[in-house]
Design the sequence.
């Protein structure tokens, strides 16, 4: 069967740039240049942004709204961050720097072709990534430490599974601080541009940490929070499940419409607490709330005791009797190591790879890997702490 030909329209002012683009496009059999007077909608528009970017962005916005083209690439000699952000917000798929790098253009065109083919024929068997929601019984119990180091440990596991880390701790999200990540985007940006949400747009706004984890922070102000809805977050998670093997969520402590929708979608819910009366009381309330809601399923909810030491005033047995639930995991108390990691914006493995707390959270990550799950005696794990 002959390959489908994609039409490309050039809206370029610079003669040199136009000639370079023509040369690359003409060298690929799957593409043809479209004449400017051709009334048919093109598959791809490549537009140059010059001295009047606002006017050209208005053109992009108009073309996007009209559906007169499939995708839009832009090229420019200007690379100011503000302009790149605006291009992304307008739904631009690729930014081609100037002077034109022919190999860069070729790769962008081939990726465009792959996207079109995947939309037309499907991508075969899609991933169905597991959602892990980490919720704190109260503030300051180590919820973010568990979420961050669980995600980075998963990414560092054998086979290098793809991992996303989302900060849903509204207004007080600290994941960028824990990982020293400076991100231009957050999930509020997704909420404002939900109509353009696809895997390409998603990957372009995620920040990739050195561990391999892709990070999506929470908004730093009310603007992103106010436009997010449970339906938007649900759509975001569904897309992420098609892209990543694991989606780890720092759920904070709130229970609102959005967090309830996340709970409903989660494969595993970790409730993080310390052995204190306020935490155990809050845990009982959370478990009771889940029972009344009818979700998440009881077997999917697991309790993690953070900062555990053997001489706690409240014993493990007393905690389990109070909760009428088995405790799934114990994270050993190592305040100095964890605070050192937080203050440096590094993972535990970067600061103290051989520390007991680092090994512990790495072992927690291993419970999600099928080979490990079959061999592991989960219920008896914490007995070694007694």
Sequence:
């Amino acid at each position: 069967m002959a390959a489908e030909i994609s039409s490309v329209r050039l809206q370029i002012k610079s003669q040199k740039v136009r000639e370079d683009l023509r040369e690359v496009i003409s060298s690929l059999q799957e593409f043809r240049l479209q004449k400017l007077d051709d009334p048919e909608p093109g598959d791809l528009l490549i537009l140059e942004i010059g001295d009047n970017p606002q006017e050209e962005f208005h053109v992009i916005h108009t073309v996007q709204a009209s559906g007169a083209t499939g995708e839009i690439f832009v090229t420019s000699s200007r690379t100011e961050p503000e302009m790149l952000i605006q291009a992304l917000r307008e739904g631009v798929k690729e930014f081609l720097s100037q002077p034109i790098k022919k190999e860069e253009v070729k790769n962008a065109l081939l990726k465009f072709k792959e996207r079109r083919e995947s939309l037309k024929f499907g991508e075969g068997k899609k991933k169905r990534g597991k959602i892990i929601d980490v919720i704190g019984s109260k503030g300051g119990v180590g919820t973010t430490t568990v979420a961050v180091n669980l995600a980075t440990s998963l990414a560092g596991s054998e086979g290098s599974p793809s991992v996303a880390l989302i900060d849903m701790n509204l207004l007080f999200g600290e994941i960028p601080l824990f990982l020293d990540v400076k991100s231009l985007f957050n999930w509020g940006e997704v909420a404002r541009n939900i109509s353009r949400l696809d895997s390409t747009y998603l990957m372009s706004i995620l920040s990739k940490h050195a561990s391999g984890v892709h990070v999506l922070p929470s908004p730093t102000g009310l603007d992103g929070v106010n436009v997010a809805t449970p339906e938007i977050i649900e759509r975001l998670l569904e897309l992420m499940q098609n892209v990543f093997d694991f989606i780890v969520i720092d759920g904070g402590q709130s229970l609102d419409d959005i967090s309830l929708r996340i709970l409903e979608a989660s494969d595993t819910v970790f409730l993080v607490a310390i052995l204190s009366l306020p935490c155990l009381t809050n845990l009982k309330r959370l478990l009771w709330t889940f029972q009344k809601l009818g979700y998440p399923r009881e077997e999917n909810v697991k309790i993690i005791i953070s900062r555990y030491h053997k001489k706690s005033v409240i014993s493990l047995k007393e905690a389990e009797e109070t909760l009428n639930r088995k405790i799934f995991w114990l994270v050993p108390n190592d305040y100095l190591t964890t605070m050192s990691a937080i203050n440096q914006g590094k993972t535990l493995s970067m600061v103290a790879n051989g520390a007991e707390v680092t090994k512990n959270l790495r072992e927690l990550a291993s419970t999600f890997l099928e080979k490990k799950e079959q061999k592991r005696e989960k219920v008896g794990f914490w007995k070694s702490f007694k």
User: Anything to note?
Assistant: Confidence is low (pLDDT under 50) at residues 371-386. DSSP finds 17 helices and 13 strands in the chain.
